[in-house]
Amino acid sequence: MLLAIPEVLSAEQVSEAGRILQSAPWVDGKLTAGHQSAQVKDNQQLGEDSVAAEQLGEMILNALGQNAMFISAALPLRVFPPLFNKYTGGQSFGTHVDNAIRQVPGTGHRIRTDLSATLFLASPEEYDGGELVVEDTYGVHSVKLPAGHMVLYPSSSLHHVRPVTRGARIASFFWIQSMVRDDAERTLLFDLDTAIQRVNRDAPASPSAVQLTGIYHNLIRRWAEA
Fold first, then answer.
1. Can you say whether residue 7 is alpha, beta or left, with left for phi > 0 and alpha for psi between -120 and 50 degrees?
2. pTM of the predicted model, to two decimals?
3. Helices in the chain by DSSP H: which ranges?
């Protein structure tokens, strides 16, 4: 499932992020790439141990914890601390697939990357190019969202970032280990949860809502690794 989640960050939060990033310490993005990715990666990245990365990462994690669509779609068990990248002057990231396991910096913890997320921090009007292109079983999808919006997609997908030919594309990116490993099962649960919310809205006293909710939670009991 590829899902666009609107307004993860408010306009005020996006503005605050831009202010912080103006004086942030950017480094060569290849420093954090694996062997194959390093061959096709050309961008800048915010130092993982920088004050700016920690401050903005906390802002994003707090926002995700309050975002009902993200929680329903991802069913998150662990979220990798958000990273930040910038593309300018023709920079791009060629076709690659994300590593299956990521070591959380400064800890002994690792996460399985079930889902990848890109949270856009620059408005589409600020730069040309820079589309995130994701390939899945349903075709090729080009994504370029407003600042503060986020796209969520399976980490097993091949994807790339097209060259930025004007301006700067700035975004946060990170990975999620879901309680439900299988993408098809997560998609089914998300669709069911969405349907339950509609039933609750359209017919609040309907016994069907209770029955559907029971089915939803029983499926989670069957599939979840908590």
1. left
2. 0.94
3. 11-22, 35-38, 51-65, 68-74, 183-202, 207-223
